[in-house]
Design goal:
18 helices; mainly alpha; binds magnesium ion; Hypothetical protein af1432; 2 domains; 378 residues
Length: 378
């Protein structure tokens, strides 16, 4: 049994893992969560993250984050936090790299559109879809469907879930029914996600010109760090000033999160992963920084995610997803052979899986292939 060094008593370990759905001999040279991380990196869904986006559509510019670079940033932030707290870095990394695997093309607009399409057929939730990807849709192993990941990795991937779905999921859904926490590693990955996207959306938002420095000066978290940078480096170019400000914001959030979580873990006196599950959420920001972080989120929602240019793009994206879904549902014979539903009653879910797996550019190409008369070459 492989055990990483310097793990705290409350960290997830191979020895305490609830294991895999299909029993497998353990690897001789790697830990179980390390193996999960490796399986995720080798999956097709992971490679497709390169051409999926969160806010901007993939073709809009090479400098914007994609879901792949976002996931790498989450893993970096998550591992840094985990190491200081004595948590299992491999597990944090595995959850971080897999957390967005179930996202549709075109970010949240795509997900909302697909959820609306699926409303009479069980709905569509991206967290649940990420789990579905690693449990079922990846087909690369001889012995099982999916990647056969450890329970703790799967549980971390399923960040949120409706109670109705939780009831159907068995062990991995139980914590939502009993209002229990996942591992500290899952809690870290969740907040690392938040730190990563808030900060890179500031950076991408400024680069795109959709938000301005003047607007961001209304946001305390940004303004306080910008003031520091301007004071120390008054001659610095604007681009470098922005990078230096974002870098400092990430650092402040990470340092605060570590200190606050360390104190919460100590106060709770948890000495085993099972005690973590029964405790309240222990990983978090101090109240002061949580408030500042929320203010930043609200700013981004109002000024970036609802910017008219983003709304135009997301409306168009939603139309692509909806029209693809409707066309496939009306005529399942349009689906490529390997995506044909068997039996036909499975068609809505099979179509949702197919569309969710598309990259932004693939969805646009598929849309053109189906709806453009000039495009006779299919
Ligand atoms: Mg994310």
């Amino acid at each position: 049994m492989f055990t990483p060094f310097n793990l705290a008593a409350y960290a997830a370990t191979d020895a305490q893992s609830r294991g895999r759905r299909h029993a497998e001999p353990s690897a001789t040279t790697r830990g179980e969560f390390q193996r999960d991380r490796d399986r995720i990196i080798h999956s097709g869904a992971f490679r497709r993250l390169e051409y999926k986006t969160q806010v901007f559509v993939n073709h809009e510019g090479d400098l914007f984050r994609t879901r792949l670079t976002h996931s790498l940033e989450v893993a970096q932030i998550g591992r840094s936090i985990a190491r200081v707290l004595g948590l299992n870095e491999d597990l944090v990394e595995a959850i971080s790299l897999a957390h967005d695997l179930g996202h549709t093309p075109f970010g949240h607009a795509g997900q909302d559109a697909l959820n609306a399409c699926m409303k009479d057929y069980g709905g569509f939730e991206h967290n649940l879809q990420s789990l579905r990807v690693v449990d079922k849709l990846e087909q690369r192993y001889a012995e099982f469907d999916g990647l056969n990941l450890c329970f703790e990795t799967r549980e971390g991937i399923l960040k949120h879930c409706s109670l109705e779905n939780a009831r159907q999921l068995g062990d991995v859904g139980e914590r939502f029914l009993h209002k229990r926490q996942p591992t500290l590693e899952a809690q870290v990955a969740n907040l690392a996600d938040e730190i990563a996207y808030n900060n890179h959306d500031v950076d991408d938002g400024l680069r795109s010109g959709l938000i301005t420095l003047t607007q961001l000066e209304q946001v305390e978290l940004f303004a306080s760090h910008l003031a520091q940078v301007r004071e120390h480096y008054p001659q610095l170019s604007e681009r470098r000033t922005i990078h230096e400000t974002v870098r400092r914001m990430i650092n402040t959030l990470v340092v605060d999160l570590i200190a606050h979580s360390q104190a919460a873990i100590r106060a709770a006196g948890v000495a085993h992963p099972d005690e973590v599950r029964a405790a309240p959420q222990l990983i978090g920001f101090s109240p002061a920084l949580a408030a500042q972080n929320n203010a930043l989120k609200q700013f981004l929602r109002k000024h970036l995610y609802k910017h008219y240019r983003v709304v135009r793009m997301t409306t168009k994206a939603a139309r692509v997803v909806t029209e693809l879904f409707d066309a496939f549902l009306a005529t399942p014979a349009l689906l490529p052979e390997e995506h044909q539903p068997h039996p036909q009653s499975d068609a809505p879910r099979v179509i949702a899986d197919y569309i969710a797996g598309m990259t932004d550019r693939y969805a646009m190409r598929e849309y053109r292939r189906l709806f453009t008369i000039e495009d006779v070459l299919i």
